[in-house]
Amino acid sequence: KEHRGSFKLSYYNEYKSYLSSMAALKRQPITTMKEHRGPVYQVRYNSTGEYCLSAGDDKSIILWNPLSGIKLKAYTAHGQAVRDVVASHDNCFLGSASADRTSFYWDVATGQVLRRYRGHDSSVNCVQFNATSTVLISGGNDSRVRIMDLKSRSYEPVQVLDDAKDTITSVDVSMDEIVVGSVDGRVRLYDLRMGKLHEDFLGSPVTSVRFSSDKQSVVASTTDSTVRLVDKTTGQLLNDYTGHTHTKLQLQSVTWHDDSAVISSCEQSRVLVWDLISAAVRDTLPCRSFVQAVSVHPSRYHLLTGMLDGGMQVWAAADDKEPEKKPVEKSMSYWALPPR
């Protein structure tokens, strides 16, 4: 276990400086969707960006076509609010986390729950697959992260990470590394291959952690109205981003697919976009309701937002162009259906 303390600000000089010329977003969303009865707690694109998922207070998960706004399928089995949902790398399975103290493993095509994992003592707030989707990782209000082997017949975790002293708010995964954000103000990076824990203190409750697209840094949201970009290897603060209000709620932050910008929701019904290198605010998107969840397209300048009024919106860059499509292998998954 390595505690790296608090950080000193430095500039991201050695990063890819050409990324600082980022696309400007249109002032109006290109798609608006509303089906949830109550707040949307999580939105995520699938691995290709052709479809997206939403999870809400109404106990449901919904699969969407984000460009047409058409609802494709609903998944309902949780007993309380669904706090998080994520798709497997092959888009055939889902993982979900719920306030009912469970995490579920779903079949996308049939809508059936394949595994119901219990063991958390209170609400499960976040869930992630590993790179090969053979492991499901969940974190909850009980300050624990549970790692489940999806190939095993056992429902017991293969490992429990219990270093946090307060609620686990967010987890993200990159190869053999798990990054965990907690209300105790710390970001913990677990290197499972080396058996090491790197722990960094940010000084305020951490509500969201995400690896940057190049997997070399971590973006963390904290309740002192700051988003921080931290080098995962050294723990050095590369940059911080301010200008939004974040003092109470569980906001999220992400980077574009090319790491050219940092994006965060705000407690003032808007979304801010900062240049990653200069930390200057490049865009402020006015939203019709408070935005809790944000997700970026894996290859385009498309931003997906989930709101407390039960709605979702897709925002796109003014000069966005659809990339050339690669052949898609046939699959029984709903992801493989042609756009409607």
What does this structure look like?
The chain has 340 residues and is an all-beta fold. It is built from no helices and 29 strands. Strand 28 and strand 29 form a beta hairpin. It is globular. The C terminus is likely disordered.
Task: Map the helices and strands.
Blueprint lengths: L1 E4 L25 E4 L5 E6 L6 E5 L3 E6 L4 E7 L5 E6 L5 E6 L4 E5 L5 E5 L6 E6 L5 E6 L4 E5 L9 E3 L6 E7 L2 E6 L3 E6 L4 E6 L4 E6 L5 E6 L3 E6 L5 E5 L11 E3 L5 E5 L4 E6 L5 E6 L4 E6 L5 E6 L3 E6 L24
Parallel strand pairs: 1-18
Antiparallel strand pairs: 2-29, 3-4, 4-5, 5-6, 7-8, 8-9, 9-10, 11-12, 12-13, 13-14, 15-16, 16-17, 17-18, 19-20, 20-21, 21-22, 23-24, 24-25, 25-26, 27-28, 28-29
